[in-house]
């Protein structure tokens, strides 16, 4: 049996603009605070990274080639050299493609390899060879962390036997519940990617705005769908009441006075945006999407509202419910903040530490 490592090396696509990067930053800071030697290696540095304390070493792997396959092989070579130079370290990789490259890089070395799925694993089934290759390679990892039981259940029994379910930690230092009159603004913050289905949210808001024209919708984030979203807003003639903002570091302070947070995703792991919105007391309307992260956290109409995936009318009706039932909306807001106790950093880090 391997000894517990005093050195932890996190591997990620990037440590910015997304849930995986957010969780890595929280875990890295927490483990460094507990006396571990912590390094974070990232494939990309396209966006400003999440805050890391001074004891966390951050390294970006160099991109040397333009051809994708050659670049992936070179990345595996770079990772293998890192692992060889740190034979006692535990390696923790996030996201399926990073996981697979990390496992290959660590074959027959003396490192403990922990991998983590950060999204709905079924969404890669349409990519040729990904499903069988991932299932095969995951057998070589020492452990797999999934965010939900649904994600764990997807994998073969041999992989499930080394899998644990650990929810995301909620970052510390979030503002406390707002008690005043809320701003007439609906908000969403997160990556601007296709899986978020923000066009659905725009459609639901368009219906809502006809009855409540004094309300605005604000979207915060960066990603590949920005131009498509901006174009759609113009096509719907909603530019006067919908704004798309860049991702900002003080997002929670910016949105805490808003009326509600609405998430329209087609699929998620466990959404950091959702749990952070709950933690600061925003009434949350969230699609009950696979692989089950939303229903893990929300009891509908108690601490949030779940709506069916891709159902514009249901989302519109839920938005109306929050406006037309202020006392029940306030109770949902108060109940939502309790998620901070269940997902406290110390509690989640302890669960991760058992894996190391």
Can you walk me through this structure?
- By secondary structure, the protein is α/β, with parallel strands linked by helices.
- The chain folds into two domains: 7-165, Glycogen Phosphorylase B (Rossmann fold, 3-Layer(aba) Sandwich), CATH 3.40.50; 183-342, Rossmann fold (3-Layer(aba) Sandwich), CATH 3.40.50.
- The chain contains 15 helices and 13 strands.
- The strands form two sheets. Strands 3-2-1-4-5-6-7 form a seven-stranded parallel β-sheet, sandwiched between helices.
- The longest helix is centred in the first third of the chain and has 18 residues, at 68-85.
- The chain is globular, with a radius of gyration of 21 Å.
Give a brief outline of the structure.
By secondary structure, this protein is of the alpha/beta class.
